[in-house]
Write the structure tokens for this entry.
Amino acid sequence: MFDHGRVSVRPLEIDPDHDVLEHLRGRISALQGGPTRLSVPTLPLFEGLVQLRTGGVYGVDSAGLAMALAAGASRGGEWIGFAGWSDFGAEAAHQHGIDLSRTVLVPAPGEHWLEVTAALIDVLTVVVLRPPGGAGVDAKSASILEARLRARSAVLLVHGDWPRCETRLVTEQAEWVGVDAGRGRLCKQRLRLLASGGGRPPTRSRIVMGEPA
Amino acid sequence: MRTMVLWCPDWSVTAGLLERAESQNAPIEPVETRAAAAVLAANKVVVCNATAREEGVRRGQRRRDAQARCPELVLLAANPDRDHRWFEPVLTAVEEVRPGVAPLRPGLLAVPAPGRYFARRGVDGEAAAAAVLAEHLVGVGVWDCRFGAADDLYTAERAARQAEPQECVAVPRGESAAFLRGLPVQALADDGPEGAELADLLRRLGLRLLGDFAALSGVSVSNRFGAYGTDVWRRVRGEQVTRLTTRTPPPELACEVSFEPPLEDAEAVTFSVRTTAERFIAGLADRQLVATGVRIEVGFEAHDSGGGAEGVTGRTWLHPRCFTSRDLIDRVHWQLRAQLPTSGLRSRKSAPIDAPVTRVRFVPDVVEPAGDHAEGLWGGGAEEQVVRGVARVQAMIGYDAVQVPVLQGGRSAADRQALVPWGERHQGLRPLDRPWPGRIPGPAPSRVFSDPLVAEVVDEAGVVVAVTARGGVTGEPWRLLAEATRYRIASWAGPWPVDEGWWLELGRGVDAADRQSRAARFQMVGVDGRAWLLRWSSGLGWQVEAAYE
């Protein structure tokens, strides 16, 4: 009854309430037996903006955003990893809700960043990568990692440039609250984010980060 | 059965001095040149050595009085564990010569007397055996050891206390009672407070020798002197004989494998230690133990074939949970690889190590009951997978390239975190639950530079901003130059004076020139929404310590 190996091919029944194309796509993926794309816990902060799904590459443009995006999975009990972060702020990660005891950090993978990231993707749910500066990432390396992501049901967050991102979060405007000409201290950050890609129209959202819970 | 007792006088002091010499990496000094020292508990002298006694230090004296008699007195805290720990090598040394050692308490042990095999013409067998033991003990650093031999344990202990350093007092066969009767009653004081009390009482009753005490009638002794008095009375009359209960030597948990001919390749060594590592773990498991710290010793053959001295390198590895045989093999691999200057994908190249390996030895450093480390009923499936995956990364780029971030206490952003290599236990972290005055509250910076970036902050006129002696700024920060980029500063907070670390010794953390100088921290926000944590000091100028993103 639950034998997915042999799916009997029934005559096509078209449900008039659903889109025919959508229906056919669903049937194809069921027949191929490909891994379904599970959603990875994401902080409620990013609701409506981005939802991480396994097998996807997501781009961000600041370290704080990368930590906040990875924090949801870490809070959900998953292992996460950071590769290429030579200036990792452990206390900030902790404040974002990342469980440091389930965090693997490879500060300087150097020229082996591709192998290291692939090995981390094999075992971790979310890998946050800062690709090496300079030459950038070529499409071949990117496709190797993307294939690995789909096979292993992991998520790659990239802080930096990446050829093809499923969704890219860009900070349109950032503003720190709390300091003024010598007085006060940094309290919180107001961000206006633009999420683009993934076959959806770009979405804008305002979020507030940096208020320690 | 003849019994021999070995007594090391004032063992607490000896153990304390040995530990002190070890912690200061100083050579152990022989007993003749030793400084006056005393062990104190609750501010009173418990034990002191002969040098201190000559100066007038006595047991039970207050610390102030003892120091008044002997100002250069070395004070040691009482620590029974230390006494036991340092007595263990003595037990082992004696066991090498004569098995069947019975430790009585730290500083006192008994062995079945080795007797007639050592007898020479003109020298008693027991005296000769004692001389052999004494020579052996001096070899391990114990100078003051005294021996006594008799038919029973009690008499042998009394005899050892009569002996001179490294000498033996042998009580002839069947003459134990006579020997005891000839002793003054003050000898009982060595038994502890109970003995001291009885000795004092007997002295006041006019009984000078133990023989006088033995002459009393058994009924009156048990009436007047209680259980302890009766016990002593029976021993002195030779009616009660204590036998030895010898110890079983501790099990040998260390495992070793030798290679003949020596192996020149790290992969081959790693492959060959597999069964030894499994045997080591199984040996521990048989005793319901697991190792959480293991010392791996690797023996190397000398470089030239001319038969030079063999080298041994050792390193202690700590595991966050407990070692499995696979972990041990990884550690051997890393230890062999750590000596290589090669970089790159190390596991794929099979570079020869600089000297052929003759043997590998696993020594358990810390063992704990296996029950404390049992896996949960449902196992740790996901975690197991992570451990293997990370081990693969370590094999690729080196063992310390994979790290686990941990929080610790501190004032600056870089001080408040630490990176511990994966698979090591973190040690010596500063506690988090202290107030740490001077730290910056609020959201922590997401980028912390371990080496601060050189920066420059200028005011509107282009003059570098500084902090005055009164803690004010010389101008409004206007522009920041960092990482070869100019940023316009929108707002800033500070200066918060930095007042830290000057009490630490030189050579730790910040250098001396910086420590003398004035310093302050700032938070600055650029017009593009970036924010930085900066440090200014009169010695080093502006530095970016961390960035908020």
